[in-house]
Amino acid sequence: MCKEIESCCTPIAPPWEAPQVIPAQLRRVNNLIFRKIGQIARTNGVEAVTPMHGWIMEYLYRHSETPVFQRDIEREFSITRSTVTNILQLMERKGYITRRSVEQDARLKQLVLTEKGRQFHEDTMRALHQTDEYVASLLTEEENTELLRLLNKLYLGLK
């Protein structure tokens, strides 16, 4: 075998550290944030509520004066119908929400927080705010502003 072929066919040793590909790094950070949310949620007594349940309860709480339907949750959180269906069924079984028929269209079901859901919402929001404060404290105010600007730019570009 000639030297030229030998040198081009020699396997290159992998780098010691995986490349910092943006989606992979976002996923790692997301996993760590969810772990922190879980840790803080346990200290607030809301470990039974997943972060997504908390965000949906917050959305329902914020929109309590207007009818909210499953499609609104799908759009707001950019998740598929089947995923939302599973999440809402579990939330209903746990007593956080109810589905009410709408007079104009019996097929539509309005999503409404129960009293238990409202209480969990308050406790969950406290845990989410504590997590947000913790994560924000890891960066300067300018870094937080720039990070949010860039994340929003990615969100709008990928939407």
Automatic annotation (TrEMBL):
Any one of the GO BP annotations: response to stress
GO molecular function, a single term: DNA-binding transcription factor activity
Protein name per UniProt: Transcriptional regulator SlyA
InterPro entries xref list: HTH_MarR-typ (IPR000835), MarR/SlyA-like (IPR039422), WH-like_DNA-bd_sf (IPR036388), WH_DNA-bd_sf (IPR036390)
Source organism (scientific name): Faecalibacterium prausnitzii
Domain HTH marR-type: 23-156
Top-level taxon of origin: Bacteria
